[in-house]
Design goal:
- The protein is built from four helices and eight strands; from the N terminus they run E-E-H-E-E-H-E-E-E-E-H-H.
- The protein is an alpha+beta fold.
- The protein has an eight-stranded mixed sheet with strand order 5-4-3-6-7-1-2-8, with helices on one face.
- The longest helix is centred in the last third of the chain and has 51 residues, at 167-217.
- The radius of gyration is 42 Å and the shape is globular.
Length: 218
């Protein structure tokens, strides 16, 4: 009985990978379970394997969840192949190449994607329990993103600092101040002119009064 050794790597970081051994008679659901366990993810979401070519382009899908009768009818009406189900599909049934490749997607909403490649075919060891993870390289990322409130506050502070560095805003504010000062100075000049005009009127009125007084005295 053959044992397949697969290299399972994160699509966006192939420096993080696991090597997994599984018997040819075991099924794709067994493979799915050991992958999830080896990277430390929970096993609470849907998943699919896709048969792929050498460039990891997705082909036929092997699903975790059962296909309903209605889905089967829809696929048949569209002339599409009915999806295989993991627990009914043995590994050996889809291994046609000594370097067979698959694409594995876990949690279809978030789309964790892995590139799976057959790297070696071994003889079965009766003393070994399969499937198993034989090699771990790199730390897997967290399955769920954690919202860091403190980090968010820091981001807000950085945003404020960035605003403070906008020289254009400072120049604009400065020009408004200068405009205000200029308007104030113009206002002061107008006030001085008005005062001078009032002084001239007072002097004129004084002269007229003085002339009139003189006539009366004469």
């Amino acid at each position: 009985m053959a044992v397949y050794r697969f290299r399972v790597a994160f699509e966006d970081n192939d420096d993080v990978y696991r090597e997994i051994e599984i018997k040819s008679t075991q099924n794709f659901e067994d493979f799915h379970n050991v992958i999830v366990q080896s990277i430390g993810f929970d096993n609470m979401h849907d998943a699919s394997f896709y048969i792929s070519d050498d460039y990891f382009r997705k082909g036929e899908e092997i699903t975790l969840r059962p296909i309903s009768d209605e889905e089967k009818k829809q696929l048949e009406r569209k002339g599409l192949a009915i999806k295989r189900q993991m627990n009914k599909c043995k590994m050996a049934s889809l291994i046609d190449d000594p370097h067979q490749k698959f694409v594995y997607v876990y949690d279809l909403k978030t789309g964790w994607t892995f590139l799976v490649e057959l790297v070696k075919i071994l003889a079965d060891d009766p003393k070994t329990n399969y499937p198993r993870c034989t090699k771990t390289v790199g730390e897997a990322p967290k399955q769920y993103k954690v919202v860091n409130i403190v980090g968010g506050m820091e981001d807000d502070e950085n945003f404020e600092d960035d605003d403070a560095e906008h020289s254009d805003d400072e120049a604009y504010a400065h020009s408004e101040d200068e405009t205000a000062l200029l308007e104030g100075e113009e206002g002061e000049e107008e006030t001085e002119d008005e005062i001078a005009s009032e002084d001239e009127m007072d002097a004129s009125e004084f002269d007229e009064d003085h002339v009139d007084d003189g006539k009366e005295d004469f």
